[in-house]
């Protein structure tokens, strides 16, 4: 599963989600894509949703009252994701962000998954990433789903960048092992 644009001002990741939908994957792989996890924010070009909450601080892992809303899961978008993700129970979930330039395997996610992606995009693997209220952190550390956080480098969309990440995703999927 790939989840794009939980931050609506990260304008690369929308097109990148569509690019990953074009991936060439093994026949036994089913790909789910959430193209805009923050649809109001994507429409408005804002990081936060229409309630001015950072959805990626609204999940129930080490939640704190900063930009993460009045309570964990106060936002309908976060509640929808936290029901949908376990219903699919993906072998891997990928969260797309920019612009910090790294490939982050969260929690116990095999580092080989991230290395396969990293090699294709020439961006480093960063382990040990956690985020208070973070969707990716909840997926890995609470739901126990292998999770990769992609922080695309820079802010400029180029065909080469999108293609490199698609190749990274394809390489990553080839590394997947049954759970
Ligand atoms: Zn982000």
- Per the CATH scheme, the topology name is Aminopeptidase
Provide the residue-averaged pLDDT. 96
What CATH first level would be assigned? Alpha Beta
Q: What's the domain count?
A: 1
Helical content band: 25-40%
What is the assigned CATH homologous superfamily?
Answer: Zn peptidases
The largest pleated sheet is described as: 5 strands, mixed
Strand content: 5-15%
Could you tell me which ligands this complex binds, including any ions or cofactors? zinc ion
Distance between the termini: 15 Å
The CATH architecture would be 3-Layer(aba) Sandwich
Class per helix and strand makeup: alpha/beta
- One letter per element, helices H and strands E, the order comes to EHEHHEEHHEH
- Please mark out the parts with pLDDT under 50 across 5 or more consecutive residues, or reply none: none
Note the overall shape. globular
Radius of gyration: 15 Å
Beta strand count: 5
The strand order across the widest sheet is 2-1-3-5-4
User: What is the number of helical segments per DSSP (H or I, 4+ residues)?
Assistant: 6
Detailed description of the structure:
With 179 residues, this protein is α/β, with parallel strands linked by helices. The protein has helices at 13-20, 39-44, 76-88, 111-121, 135-141, 159-174, and strands spanning 2-3, 33-34, 93-97, 100-106, 147-153. Strands 2-1-3-5-4 form a five-stranded mixed sheet, sandwiched between helices. Helix 1 (13-20) packs across helix 6 (159-174). The longest helix has 16 residues, at 159-174. The structure holds zinc ion. The site of zinc ion has 3 residues, from loops.
């Amino acid at each position: 599963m790939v989840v794009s644009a939980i931050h609506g001002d990260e304008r690369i990741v929308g097109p990148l989600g569509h690019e990953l939908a074009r991936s060439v994957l093994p026949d036994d792989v089913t790909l789910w894509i959430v193209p805009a996890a923050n649809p109001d924010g994507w429409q408005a070009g804002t990081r936060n949703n229409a309630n001015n909450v950072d959805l990626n601080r609204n999940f129930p892992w080490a939640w704190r009252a900063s930009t993460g809303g009045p309570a964990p899961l106060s936002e309908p978008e976060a509640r929808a994701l936290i029901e949908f993700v376990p219903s699919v129970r993906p072998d891997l979930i990928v969260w797309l962000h920019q612009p910090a330039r790294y490939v982050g395997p969260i929690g116990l996610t095999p580092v080989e998954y991230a290395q396969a992606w990293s090699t294709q995009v020439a961006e480093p693997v960063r382990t040990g990433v956690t985020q208070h209220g973070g969707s990716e952190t909840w997926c890995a550390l609470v739901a126990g789903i292998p999770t990769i956080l992609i922080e695309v480098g820079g802010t400029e969309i180029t065909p080469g960048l999108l293609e490199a990440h698609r190749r990274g995703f394809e390489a990553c999927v080839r590394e997947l092992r049954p759970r």
